[in-house]
Amino acid sequence: MLAWERVIWIIDDLLDNPVAGLVYLAAFALAFVTGIAFHEFSHAWAANELGDDTAARQGRLTLNPLAHLDPAGAILLFVAGFGWGRPTPVNPYRLRSGVKRGNMTVAVAGPLSNFAFALIVSLPLILGWVEPPRSLATFGRADGAELLGAFLFFIAWINVLLGVFNLIPIHPLDGFKVLVGVLPDGAARAMIPLGRWGPALLIALIALNFIAPDYSPLSWIFNEAFDLFLDFVA
Q1: Residue pLDDT, tens place only, 13-62
Q2: What number of CA atoms fall less than 13 Å from residue 214's CA on the CB side?
Q3: pTM
Q4: How far apart are CA 109 and CA 95, in angstroms?
Q5: Longest Cα pair distance anywhere in the chain, in angstroms?
Q6: Cα–Cα dist 19/147, whole Å
Q7: Cβ(21)–Cβ(15) under 8 Å?
Q8: What are phi and psi of 97, to 5 degrees?
């Protein structure tokens, strides 16, 4: 069974178990709210540090989730398992490190914040201080430490998922700006006009993920990410 299919199977079983379902939903909601807030705050902070206070002047230099939530991104996250926050405004011409490098730095700050948050949350699991239940069959009888382990596991994984999704090099995701930033100048200039096809391509990939997940690049990416995550926290 593929890792992404295992996630769907686990979620289905969790929702059949009231205790497990509540733990998962609480972790999902907290991970989404905090993950998006840290992600967009990190964009605003990086831009401000590089000389552009556009986001700061618009009240985005804050960890208040209400300043960063995007309705469409929130709905998609709950429906499809991945989403985004309200784009952080950046004036690349005010970035001290230049448009190309500055855009890349501001863009990568968001996903990196999700990975950092996931690492912090995972530390009790990595160090063996708490463990999630060994099987879903025992979830309903899990003690407080096991429920805490499951709670932390879900929060960490959802933040990894947010970071991985946003690093996909398709406009308007952060990964497109990162790709443009690392390419040689000529290749970067050639890539920028292709960005206008990004939203349509992203929608097509998301649709393919539902219609034929075995052939979906998104499924391949998330499967690999999930396996790496399991190896890391195990």
Answers
A1: 556 666 766 777 787 788 888 888 999 999 999 999 999 999 999 999 99
A2: 1
A3: 0.84
A4: 14
A5: 60
A6: 9
A7: yes
A8: -85, 5
Residue type, 155: I
Q: Is the pLDDT of residue 3 over 50?
A: no
Scored b (16 or more CB within 10 A) or e, 88-114 reads bebebeebeeeebebbbbbbbbbbbbb
The answer to whether residues 184 and 101 touch, using CB atoms and an 8 Å cutoff, is: no
CA dist., res. 178 & res. 107, Å (int): 6
The 10s digit of each residue's pLDDT in 126-135 is 898 887 666 5
The answer to whether the CB of 24 falls within 8 A of the CB of 63 is: no
Question: What amino acid positions are annotated as catalytic residues?
Answer: 40
CA distances in angstroms from 70 to 96, 112, 154, 163, 178, listed in the order given: 29, 20, 22, 16, 22
Distances (CA, A) of 145 to 17, 94, 124, 136: 18, 49, 11, 15
Query: Cα 59 from chain centroid?
Result: 22
Which tokens is 91 given? 């004036």
Q: Quick check: 171 and 199 in contact, CB under 8 A?
A: yes
One-character DSSP codes across 51-103: T--HHHHTT-SS--GGGT--HHHHHHHHHHS----PPPP--GGG-TT-HHHHH
How crowded is residue 31: how many other Cβ atoms within 10 Å of its Cβ? 26
Residue carrying the six token digits 């995007």: 70
Give the length of the chain. 234
Q: What six digits make up the tokens of 23? A: 């733990």
Amino acid at 139: F
